[in-house]
Amino acid sequence: MIKLASDNVYKKIIQNEMKKLQKLVHIKVFTSLKTNPDGTKVRKCTDCDQTMQLLGIYEENSNNLLNIEELSIYDNPQFADKFDIQRVPTILLMDSTGREVIRYLANPIGQETQSFVSAIFALGGGPNYYENTIKQNIERIDPATIKIMMTMQCPYCPELVKTANLFAVASEGKLRTVVVDIMVNQDIGQYYRASGVPYTIINERPAIQGLIKPQYLLQELIR
Question: Is position 116 within any domain?
Answer without folding.
Answer: no
